[in-house]
Structures are given as structure tokens and as C-alpha cells.
Here is the input.
Amino acid sequence: MTKLRSQTNTIREIPENAAGGVLHIDLDALASNWRILRGNAGGVDTAAVVKANAYGIGIEQAVPALAHAGCRTFFVAHLSEAIRARAVASDAAIYVLNGLLPGTGPTYAEFDLRPVLGSLEEIGEWAAFSRAQDQKLKAAIHVDTGMNRLGLTVPQGLTLKDSSELKDFETALLMSHFVSAEESDNPLNIQQIEAFQAVKASLPGITASLANSSGIFLKEKPHFDLARPGYALYGGNPTPDRDNPMRAVVGLEGRIAQLRWVEADHTVGYNGRWLALTRRRIATLSVGYADGYPRSSSARGKSGDELLAGMALVAGQPCPFAGNVSMDLITVDVTDVPETQVKRGDTVTLIGGDLTVDEVGRRAGTIGYEILTNLGSRYARAYRGGEG
Ligand SMILES: *Cc1c(COP(=O)(O)O)cnc(C)c1O
Here is the structure.
């Protein structure tokens, strides 16, 4: 038996047999993925991006497991997430990607957090705050090399060397972010690397970071001083045109609430969007879009159609969804599974085996990132490993 541990922090404990779904989270696989990524980054310092509740798996569980594996630097999106990370990683460097919001300096200082400064205005505010504190507070500076979202422009980045404000705080990191690193042949990758190099070269001795998960695997090896993976840590494939080098971290099982036969020419679910052409056996799972399982996985058509829609593994056999995903329920066509092999109360696999997070995302017309970060709060969460 594997050791199971229930989450205690942000989500109340839910007994497995009382939950509509059970989320299995393998913290050993998470730690192992971090080591794999560090190896692929040529051994440079490797951080972990743990924004959005560590891509849905739980920041209070993920951060200690990664710190135990040797990770010393974490990135989150929000200041509130950084405070949660700090509570479980007292010594780590913690960066807030979304930058400095006006007036939040004292909170950064109180919890020893580092903003990722994304504009000259933010740099000015951090410099002023550092002067007022009479301390060289640490921060990162983000240079935008193509995303047009956050960060200084490259020309602004090239003038930083002449800025007096840079003397008022410690620039612990210079960073930028790839637009399409998962497309290994996209010419934008090289353009971004070159623009980033130019800014880095103008600031001698600066510590630099560019690569997200997919960036680590680019043939140009843009590893610089620090790699910054997120998705791949959680088992997502950073190399979509090749086999996934990562271990699966997340598994999801949904519970069968009922089994029934649906006669030919009857429909299943809201709005009657799926028609049984022959008599079909339907399993109704106690999981729905209120659990973050995307409604865009709905199967609208007829029994036997090849639809791009959700699937479940029932007694190990792939079974297609039937009809619309509803708030609390998903209906699955299990006609092809021998009747004796499936019964009320059984669990079926919604994420696991060939139903990887990437595949579940594809079947929902989205990306695995969205599947992970929407993982719901009604599931029982069973954590494995992570204690060293
Ligand atoms: C989310 C994020 C990452 C991690 O990206 P993945 O594709 O999940 O590895 C790295 N850097 C920045 C700036 C991010 O916003």
C-alpha cells in the first residue's frame, strides 16, 4: 500500500468514500520531475513556478516537497500566493511574477518577498521604498521580449545601466518569458533569446533567467543562470512534438453514482444533445464542471460517433462521454465494458494512464495547464510521498 496523506491546509479534509472524485497527487514524482528538469537545464540553478496553488496540486504540499528535493527559488503570480509559500518555505527566495502593486512594499518587506518589477514605474516605486527602508531590498526585473504583457521594453532594458534608481535596490534577477517555447522551431524563440542576451550583456554580472518548462528543452539551451519551469513539474509535456519526459503527478478518479440502460432513440443529459442509436448502458459519474472538469468536454452527437470529447477509463477500457457535462455529473457510455466489471460506487479514471493532462486538455479544446489549474475543491485529495 502506498502511504496516503490528506491535505490539511486550504481545503478541508474530505473522506474518499464521501467524495465524488479522488485526486491522487504524487509528490515523489513532482520531486523527480524537478530533478529531471534541472538535469535538462544543464545543472543550472532550477526554480519552481508554484502559482495558481502550484498548478492546482496544493502550494502547501508542493513547496515543501520541492524544497526537500533542493529547490531554493519559487515563483508565484500573486502576493497572496507568495505569503502562502513563505509559510512553508522559510529560507527560500520567493518572487511575485505579476509585479509590484502600488503600496504593497511593506507586505513584501514583512514576508521577505521579491517583486518582479515589470515597468519603469514599478522600478521607481521599489527604489523609493528601499531608500525609505534604508535597505537594498531584492527584486527581479522583467524585460519583455515579445509577449507584450508585462515587462520593460527592450530599449528600456538597454538604458537600465544608466539608471540611478538601480543603485537603491538589489537586482537579484533579470528575466524574460518565451511566447511559444513549446514550438521548438518557432523563429521567435531565437529572436527572444538574442534580445534578452543584449539586455543581459548591458548589465555585467547580472543573474539571468529565461526558460520556462519548454524553454529548457530548446536546442538553443537558453538556460542562463536559472531555469523557471512550472507545467512540466506537474507532469505536463514540455515537448509536445515528442514523448513526454516527465512523470505523471496527478491522477483523478470519478465515482459512479448510478448505472442505467438507455433505450434506442432516447437522449442523455441537458438539452438532449446525445442520442442513443441502440440500447446503451450509461454510467453517471459524480464529477462535473463545478469540479473544474471542463464542460467543453461534452459529447454532442450520436452513440458510436467519433467525437472530440471527454473519455473515462472504466475497468481499464476507454469509454466516451455521452451528452453534456453538467455541474455535478458526467455521463459515460460503458456499453462495451462487460456488465460484471462495472458497478455503482466504483471509481473510473478521468486523469491517468493514456488520459494524461495534455490529452484531457486536448479533448476539451484547451491545454493541460487549464485542466490542472481548475482542479476542483470538492475532491478528496490523496497525497503520496514528499516526506523524503
Ligand atoms: C507561468 C510562468 C512560468 C512557467 O511556465 P511553464 O510553461 O508552466 O513552465 C515561467 N515564467 C513566467 C514568467 C510565467 O508566468
Q: What stands out?
A: The chain has two domains: 27-234, 250-355. Residues 1-11 have pLDDT under 50 and may be disordered.
